[in-house]
Amino acid sequence: MLTDIEIEAVVATLKGSRKYGDTHEATIRELVLAESGHYKKVKQVEKAVRKRLHSIMAPYLGDPDYERAQGELTAVFVTNDPTRIKDYCYKLLYDHLSTRERLPILDDFYDQIFAVTGRPRSLLDIACGLNPLAYRWMGLADAPEPVHFYAYDIHAPRIDLLNHYFQLERLPPLARLQDVALNPPQETADLALFLKELPRFARNYGSDLARTFLHNLDVRWLVVSFPTVSTHGGRSLEERYRDYFHQLSDPDWAITELLFDGELVMIAEKTGAR
């Protein structure tokens, strides 16, 4: 077990690194504390934490230049041209693998989901990545009051970009720099999105925590999606993830399944919720 001074030194080293300097400090500290129980040497702990951060942050999925993107978003909104705004959001969505894979189905994706759940007036986007930039495909802009769109991620520049975008859309800036594994959302909403991130969440924190997390979200509807093929090799994952979601679910939940090209969406109405 490392001393408190050694723990803070590892946290400082990782926060000072180019690769993880923008990661939520609470996440880094929690991982250092966890790994310090397994190793006696600082270098061993640091190596173990870097490995876990790589899995959690998934830098291989890609990111835009966040500072540049903020300026370009502002410029495109100044034009007040809906087509140009949507085209630029599409470009940003392309920069992250998870949302890039959804682009071919984006025109129908939320229409089919909300045909089941109704259009939410409040939603939680868990481990959101760049997904909130798909707001203009969600059909939520025509309601009398702005939607309350909560978004959670542990990458600080991403959260800054999303809050900037929300303000440009005249939405409340409700993107949160928050590690949902350590500090689950406490907000009440109509619906929660957890898109293609549950497998990594369970791998990093365990299926027991994943089950508790889903059950404790204060929403009526859960929308959880999974990739239908593996990133490497094209192996089919559809049946595996369908069964996995049913294992995590409450038997009383009413579950609807939507199958898109490349993405399996499981929609659960949480009995007794709200």
Please describe what this structure looks like.
There is one protein chain. The chain folds into two domains: 4-57, Orthogonal Bundle (Helicase, Ruva Protein, domain 3), CATH 1.10.8; 66-269, Vaccinia Virus protein VP39 (Rossmann fold, 3-Layer(aba) Sandwich), CATH 3.40.50.150. It contains eleven helices and seven strands. Strands 3-2-1-4-5-7-6 form a seven-stranded mixed sheet. It has helices at residues 4-15, 25-36, 42-57, 66-78, 82-94, 97-102, 106-117, 156-168, 198-205, 207-216, 238-248, and strands at residues 122-125, 148-153, 175-177, 189-195, 219-227, 254-260, 263-269. The protein is an alpha/beta fold and 274 residues long. Helix 1 (4-15) crosses helix 2, helix 1 (4-15) crosses helix 3 and helix 9 packs across helix 10. It is 46% helix and 16% strand. Strand 6 (254-260) and strand 7 (263-269) form a beta hairpin. The radius of gyration is 19 Å and the shape is globular.
CATH superfamily of the largest domain: Vaccinia Virus protein VP39
SS class: alpha/beta
Beta-strand share of residues: 15-25%
How many helical elements?
11
Multimerization status: single chain
**Helix proportion:** 40-55%
- Assigned CATH class of the largest domain: Alpha Beta
Give the key terms.
2 domains; 274 residues; 46% helix; Rossmann fold; alpha/beta; Helicase, Ruva Protein, domain 3
Entry summary:
The chain has 274 residues and is of the alpha/beta class. Helix content is 46%, strand content 16%.
